[in-house]
Every structure is written in C-alpha cells, then in structure tokens.
C-alpha cells in the first residue's frame, strides 16, 4: 500500500511512471512445439501461477508457495524479481523495493513453461506497478530477451495458440484462435529435465526429407488446431526433436508411443518430460505410477494484470 510517497518513481532520464499500488498477476502454463512446430508453436493452458506485488521499502522480500518453494532463490536473483526489474527498466521506471508473493501451480522443469510464466508474469507486474496499459507484443520482445527463445513466452503473453519467431534478436508472435472445444491432458512425471539438457541432444543437421515432412506437418497443424481438430493425429507427427530426446526421457517417449498407438495425438510438451495429448477432455488412460494427470482447457487471454489503478477488470484483459 502507498504510504503517501510515490512507490514508483521516474528514472534518471525522466520517463513517466505513476504511483503504484498492489498489483496482482495471473499467468498461464504453456506447452511449446506441439510436435512439428519446434521452437515456434505455443499453446496457453488453464493452469496458472499468481503473483502479488506490493511496492514499498528499499529491498525485495519474496514468498513462494507451491512448486519452487524451498528451491528458488528468494532475493534479487529470483526469476520473477529479475523480470519485474527488467520490465521497470524498459518502462523507464524504478521501484526501489517491493514484496512479492508467488502462488505457483506450474511444475518446474517439466516442459510446461514455468520459466516463461515467471518472466512474463514479472514483466506484466512492472506494467501494473507503473499503471501502464499492457503492451503484449512488447512483453513478448522483452521476455524473449530473458528466456532466450520466444515460443513459450508468446503463448504466456498472448494466450490461445501462438506462432513465434525472431527477427534479428527480436521475439515476435502472432496469436490464432484455437478450435472451439480444444482441450489438453498433460501427463507430468516427477522427474525433471532441464531445457538446456534436452536441447543438447539435438543433431546439428537432419535429412532434407525429414525437414520437408516437418514443414508440411507444421503447416497442417495450424489448420488442425484452429479449425480441423480431426487432423491432429497426422498433424502432430514430428521428425525434428522428440525422438532425439529419448535418452533424456525414455518413459516420456514410451508414453507418447503408447498413446499415439491408441489413436491419441500425444506430443512431448516443450523440452519434456511432460506428455501432452490434444483435443481430449477426460476419458484418457490413467497416469503411470509416479506421474500426475492434469485435465486442462486452453487459456484464451494470456497474462492478466490487476492493479489498484485499475478500477474494474484486468488491466491486461483481452476483451
Ligand atoms: N515461478 C518461478 N519462480 C522462480 N524461478 C522459476 C519459476 N519458474 C521457473 N523458474 C526457474 O526456471 C527453472 C525451470 O526452467 P526450465 O526452462 O528448465 O523448465 P520449464 O520452464 O518448467 O519447462 P519448459 O521451458 O521446457 O517449458 C527452475 O528450475 C527455476 O530456476
Ligand atoms: Mg522454460
């Protein structure tokens, strides 16, 4: 709460910043790749981390419940704190101190975009702290700088189904409307795979025929996800990354093969090890021992921000 003095102050270059109150952020989990859309496709899922940022004082205090509690740093090096700072800097504002509460639900290191949610959520919080209307394309650009690739951050920022790319070093994305009724089931194992580790297994080059097949399937997947879900099984075939990652996650690939063998469009979610099945709501096989199953909808709007400056509704809502 404001103590009467501004909590957000202009930076030395004099860029505008308004007084900040408490800011709340809700940011979705995301699944990248979706089979053939390697490093480009993203889907926002109805599983959310929530942040509460209360400006005041001169340092940061961080409190985490849910995934990451007891593991992540609770100081300036916390990914959400770093992202709030980066967001403030890009808006030309300084908030010397704040407390951050993270109510996390997205599991870490499982391929459901927890790092992107932390980054996009933190940047969105900076918009809320300064009373600036959310510029989602700018959030994608800035989040890509921190994350290093734009696929998950695009879906977390824009919601729905996204296609991301980079122009030079700038992260860009378009959002497409997923087909009505599209849903997803995530099978999440207890074991983690770090994105860096999974990337290290990919070959430097693939045969032209595999690249051509993937390009065609990726294009087909755009049609399948937006209007022709009956094509999802064929459209989710991949030859660029999933099988190469088998040594890092053999159980995940075994589950993908088993589910696909029963006619279900299963893919490795992001860098794994989560397995995602598209176009289904319930009625799927139980999770293997030691795995959790999440029945999820598609998040339509991406990150949302509520701040004390916003009298009604989310500052970042997509009406
Ligand atoms: N909410 C969070 N708060 C702080 N740090 C986080 C948060 N979420 C993720 N991280 C950091 O990011 C790491 C996980 O990142 P990583 O990219 O490996 O997995 P992921 O984002 O869950 O999955 P993927 O990128 O494959 O979808 C965590 O170990 C932690 O260091
Ligand atoms: Mg990540």
TrEMBL record:
Pathway participation: Amino-acid biosynthesis; L-threonine biosynthesis; L-threonine from L-aspartate: step 4/5
Organism (species): Kribbella voronezhensis
Residues annotated to bind ATP: 107-117
Superkingdom, taxonomy of origin: Bacteria
Domain GHMP kinase N-terminal: 79-160
Protein name, per record: Homoserine kinase
Main location as per UniProt: cytoplasm
Coiled coil: none
Keywords associated with the record: Amino-acid biosynthesis, ATP-binding, Cytoplasm, Kinase, Nucleotide-binding, Threonine biosynthesis, Transferase
Physiological role: Catalyzes the ATP-dependent phosphorylation of L-homoserine to L-homoserine phosphate.
One Pfam family matching this protein: GHMP_kinases_N
Family membership: Belongs to the GHMP kinase family. Homoserine kinase subfamily.
Gene Ontology biological process terms from the UniProt entry: threonine biosynthetic process
SUPFAM superfamilies: GHMP Kinase, C-terminal domain (SSF55060), Ribosomal protein S5 domain 2-like (SSF54211)
Catalyzed reactions: L-homoserine + ATP = O-phospho-L-homoserine + ADP + H(+)
The protein's enzyme class: transferase
